[in-house]
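Students often ask why we bother encoding 3D structure as a string. The short answer is that it lets us treat folding as translation between two languages. Here is a chain of 315 residues written in the first language.
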Amino acid sequence: MFRFTRAQKVFDINGIKIGGQPGDNPPLLIASMFHNKDRILEDRKGRFDRQKAKELINKQEELSNSTGIPAMVAMVANTPEEAEVYIDFYLETTNMPFGIDMWVAEKRAQATEHIAKLGIQDKFLYNSITPWDKDIKGQINRLKDLGIKHVVVQAFDDKDQSPMGRVKSLDNILSQGADSFDTVIVDTSVMNLPATSFSLIANRLIKDKFGLPCGGAYSNGTHMWKASKDLWGPDGFKAMDAVAQGMASVLWSDFNFYGPIVTAPRIFPAVATAHILLSTIVYGETKHIPEKDNLPIRRFFPDFIEKLMAGEARK
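And here it is in the second language, the structure alphabet:
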């Protein structure tokens, strides 16, 4: 169930390993900043609370270092000019990789030109090539000309919203040249909380067929369920959100777009806990735990692993 016969691809984004067999690498957690209703945002002209933004980024970096879960930020912008302000600020603040979240393909491309001018393609994740883009081949050629290395491909079919529909959508986009980048990771398009399961099943199908790293914006499912706050209050919502993020991390996810960066203090412990459990689930199938210091299970339970291996040796 958690071991693929197909070889699994592992990519490197600015030193972060993403992909592989389940349990081999902790999932990459990608936060959102400067989204609508972000409290640090003053307007859409590039004005924001810089001190608070810096504190949030530093807190995510601290949590990443303590848990072993790698991290980056996707910054939401409406215009290329706005994106440039956020990019320049981010580069002054941290060495973590980053992405820009812009819905309109042409504006995304213009913002990406700023990345190319700065020569920082190694730490930039292009988000994303989508099935709704009108000229996928043209977009890919433009990105290649700019030297873009790392891309997200979004898999979804409006006419077939099943897991297999996502597989067919991905196949179509890859056939147009999206498989030619150094890094290709697949967002299996979360639409709401219960349909998140379709994305998770699609993760498994895609890893089995293509060997590509998969994940999703699981916060789409949790944050869109606004009634949960009325049902259970803020603490209930936070619990629901953490459970969904953690469960998704077990079920064939190599990365999570986990939502607003302010939620990092609950999401990182949740995902680290989920990965610890995934490690022992995989051990049950393989009798192996990878020799990697950043794995949460090795970081927090080295004595348990030592006893586990000693018992296996005695057998």
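Translate back mentally: The two ends are 24 Å apart (CA to CA). Keep this in mind for the problem set.
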